[in-house]
Amino acid sequence: MGQKVPNLPALTDDCSRCAALCCVAYPFEEDEDFAILKDVDTPCPNLSDTCFDCTIHASLKSRGFGGCIAYSCAGAGQRVTQELFDGETWRDDPDLLTHMTHALRVLRPIHEALAILLEAQKLPLPPEVQMELTAKITALCPDDPKSIWAFEDAQVQDALADVPTFVRSLAPYVA
């Protein structure tokens, strides 16, 4: 099992601590995953006007929103809302909208990569590969995780770009 990594975030969704960033940040293409066309950085019309709840959550599949069901931010949404923006939301301050959605689009791939790398720690890896794995996880967890710039840093982005190649190199250790 891998070493403990400082600044390792929660990698599971907690929508109650988020500002519905996924319902705003990403565009929808009108197809089998989304019943409507929606632009980037635009709130979904199914988002409640008074809170950050989906007004059709109970019937997403039957209403043509399978993409919403399949989506996971791997904890990036609540991290953006609670840590990077101290609990403020784009509804509190509309000027925050594009900053928060940009932060989600930067953090989500990092969180997804961390989730994959943490799963890889369960593999029977030789010590040198385990050390490399721990180094990659550490590189994706910057020392000052309170600023989006920490995640846009070249070291973090280079580590993120290297994850697919590194994960493919683990194939011989998968039973």
TrEMBL record:
Q: Which domain of life is it from?
A: Bacteria
Name of this chain's protein: Pentapeptide repeat-containing protein
Biological source species:
Shimia haliotis
